[in-house]
Amino acid sequence: MKIKDLIDEAESLPVEERALMVDSLLRSLNPPDAGVDRKWAEVSRKRLEEIRSGTVEAIPSEQVFERIWSRFER
């Protein structure tokens, strides 16, 4: 089967099956790493604790993106 035929067939699948196919293909390119996932979970827990305790203040996403976009407008 040629790649074009494969893509055409995949595009004709229901959205749930296409999502499953995309997920599977992406995982084959970048397999999950339990060690990395564990470290991200640790960082996430630490950040959440900092926000809840008031050690750091959360910045609304709108404000963050405004700052980022303003750097590109220069």
List the helices and strands and how they pair.
Blueprint: H1 3-11, H2 15-29, H3 34-53, H4 61-72
**What is the overall pLDDT average?**
94
Query: Given the C-alpha coordinates, what overall shape results?
Result: extended
Strand runs, count: 0
The percentage of residues in β strands lies in: under 5%
The ordered string of helix (H) and strand (E) elements is: HHHH
**Distance linking N and C termini:** 50 Å
* Coarse structural class: mainly alpha
Helical content, roughly?
Answer: over 70%
If helices are DSSP runs of H or I spanning 4 or more residues, what is the number of helices?
4
The main pleated sheet reads as: none
Given as residue ranges, the uncertain stretches (5+ residues, pLDDT < 50) are none
- The radius of gyration is 20 Å
Features:
mainly alpha, 74 residues
Q: Describe it for me?
A:
- By secondary structure, the chain is an all-alpha fold.
- 76% of the residues lie in helices and 0% in strands.
- It has four helices and no strands.
- The longest helix is centred in the middle third of the chain and has 20 residues.
- The radius of gyration is 20 Å and the shape is extended.
- The N and C termini lie far apart (50 Å).
- The relative contact order is 0.05.
- The model has no long low-confidence stretch (mean pLDDT 94).
